[in-house]
Amino acid sequence: MKLYQTYTSPFPTRVRLCLYVKGLSPEIIEPPGFHATVESKGDYFDINPIGRVPALVTDDGQALPESEVICEYLEDAYPDPPLLPKDPWGRAQVRLISRLCDFYLVMAMRTLFNASGTSRRNWNRPSIDRALAEVEAALGYIEHYIGNAGYAVGDRLTWADGALLPQLQLSYEWAPTLFDTPSPLGKHPKLAAYWAGIVRDPIAARLLKETRDAIAHEQENARAIARQRAAAAAAGQSS
Question: Smallest Cα–Cα separation from 84: which of 74, 94, 76?
């Protein structure tokens, strides 16, 4: 089994959560052409013509894209330990939290993702501020539905936690730091309690550390590229 993914994308996180909980150890492959790079995605399109991550390749060579679909597959193929509650209502809540993350919080983040790839002098600050307000509104929707037993739904990890964790990391840490704005942490009491407590789960803590380390590495690479470009420009001006 192979998982094509990047650690800075929030979508593979829920898949890694499923894999870790179920004790599965696929080969992790980071395809080219993602994030701060000029590389082409090249042969990755042969695996996933959509061109996004993640994609799971099964032991018999079948490729499956889309994180939520991959989680469904893993739950069906490897049912123990389960990552969905037994009761229909609980299962619906898992899917609801995941959907709120994907359709409201991620969509609110799109303007911020786009701005992060451009120079600060080209930022449209009113547009960024509107996007930050939309992020807070989306967090409010999740606040209404999130459970209060320490996890997104119920008293153990589900793939709703895999959907929610990276989005909270973006909302509470990445966006406020990059856009010099107060963190929304604490404005939604149930989400704040969840964020404070979920780190006690070793798999959740592992996922958060993987993302933080990857973001720090990518930021350092971006700074190194900027220094190289500045040095090259200075050398060109002096010659």
Answer: 94
Categorize the per-residue pLDDT at 238 as very low, low, confident or very high, splitting at 50, 70 and 90. Answer: low
What's the half-sphere exposure (Cβ side, CA atoms, 13 Å) at 50? Answer: 10
* Confidence bin at 201 (pLDDT 50/70/90): very high
Instruction: Kindly report the backbone phi and psi dihedral angles of residue 34, in degrees, each rounded to the nearest multiple of 5, phi listed first.
Output: -115, 150
Angle between helix axes 159-169 and 11-21 (nearest 10 degrees) is 140
Check residues 79 and 36 and name the one with the higher pLDDT: 79
Q: Residue 55 pairs with which residues in a beta bridge?
A: 4, 65
| Residue-wise burial string across 121-146, b where 16 or more C-beta atoms lie within 10 A, e elsewhere | eeeeeeebeebbebbeebbebbbeeb
Least Cα distance to 31 among 58, 66, 55, 63 occurs for 55
CA Rg value for the chain: 19
Contact predicate 130/111, CB 8 Å: yes
Alpha-carbon distances of 55 from 64, 212, 222, rounded to whole Å: 5, 22, 26
Tell me which DSSP letter residue 102 carries: I
Instruction: Give the relative orientation of helices 189-198 and 125-145 as an angle to the nearest 10 degrees.
Output: 80
